[in-house]
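Thanks for the sequence, V.! I ran ABC transporter permease right away. Repeating your input here for the record:
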Amino acid sequence: MTEMASPRTAATSRIARLLDSDILHSFLRSKVTIAAAFLTLLFFAGAIFAPIVAPHDPFDLAGISILDARLPPAWMEGGDARFLLGTDDQGRDVFSAILYGSRISLAVGFMSVILAATVGILLGLTAGYMGGRIDAFIMRIAEVQLTFPAILIALLIDGAARGIFGNLDREKYVFWILVFSISLSLWVQFARTVRGSTLVERGKEYVQAARLIGIPPFLIMIRHVLPNVLGPALVIATINLALAIITEATLSFLGVGVPPTQPSLGTLIRIGNDFLFSGEWWIAIFPGAALALLVLAVNLLGDWLRDALNPKLR
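Predicted structure:
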């Protein structure tokens, strides 16, 4: 009985510590943070369950009629109750397109941040712990990387992809081209932050003790140093998620993102921009508002997490 009860006891103690933690109290005290978390979860739920929640499938060409093109929102004169936020120039439901577009935008943002965090954290750990020429070499690469704007890097990679694969084959790999392009501009922040934290941690007693008993440097970095530098990296990841979504939307707006047949939020805004001054404002305004709300909510969560994990602000 004791062996069976011990895992439950450990789980109960973890939950109790979480409920009594400063982070949870900080979260519950901030109404803005609660609202941002609710809005973020709403976007994630809508994106994940888009095939269930969306009233129409904007990617199903058989279910789209050109006769339904440019219909205003349902509450306006000439609107159709089937299309809550109206339709675009192809007759696609704008509300459904936003749900599916959020799916693509969030997927690109998440994969970009995961790849950038993996590369940046590993390079930052190596630079901070090893020091010397390795540190200087990695940091010089990071400084060179900072001189190139994210949009310029993405445009260069997209141009190279068009030359290698061609326009048609490029569309098959456009998702990963976007992920690679965006992550290439985000890894530097992770590397510089983790390097600074590693420089502090490597001089502490627990690292010295691990060296004395003969633990290899790689294991020291992964087992001992890494858990103590993940806090700042987590904050950067949250803020960079919003930046990655904005970058993807910008690239799609410029025409180097995902194709119009499978639009993200940026593609929807680009399509709607062509009809903005002809009276069909809803085609661009609603996807733009969704993008703004998503980025704002993620940024607010990132700001709260930065303050909650900073012991000087408690």
